[in-house]
Amino acid sequence: MSLSLAVVDPSVAGARQGDALAWADLYERFHPVLERYLEVVNPEALEDMDEVWARAARTLALQPEGVAPLIWLLRSARDGMVVCPDPDDTDDPAIQAMRALAPLEMDVVALRVVAGLDEFETAFVIGRPVERVRLAGHEGLARLMREGTAA
Fold first, then answer.
1. What is the mean pLDDT of residues 117-137?
2. How many Cβ atoms are within 10 Å of 1's Cβ, its own excluded?
3. Pick the CATH number of 3-146 from 1.10.287, 1.25.40, 1.20.120, 1.20.140
4. Is the pLDDT of residue 3 over 50?
5. How far is residue 86 from each of residues 45, 65, 75, 95, 135, measured CA to CA in Å?
6. Above 70 in pLDDT, residue 151?
């Protein structure tokens, strides 16, 4: 299992106490990854990133101790996720190809490739068994390779 599921982050502790500097640190470190991930799987959420962060703030108390902040933020960002964003809503061929995948494959590939998570972290974020994540990732990447677009 990944070590990032068993970390202590001082910014999370500070954010739980309402420390604005802790929230600023979390935002600075993880906002770019959240934006890249959402650009693939839920582009509508990019229009209201304030709501994405507000949802994260509301779920902070529910975050299990020791879960890496990026894992918790990605899991929170998936709430209300668009199931199948339109591949034609972007000019980026890699994003178009990922959006053309089956929803689970798209989500797994985006979490693995775009957010840089491992299989265990991805399984935690999406709430699926590691074996299913492994299979969806393999199938999604194989399809991208067959179609000539590597993410």
1. 95
2. 12
3. 1.20.140
4. no
5. 14, 36, 22, 10, 24
6. no
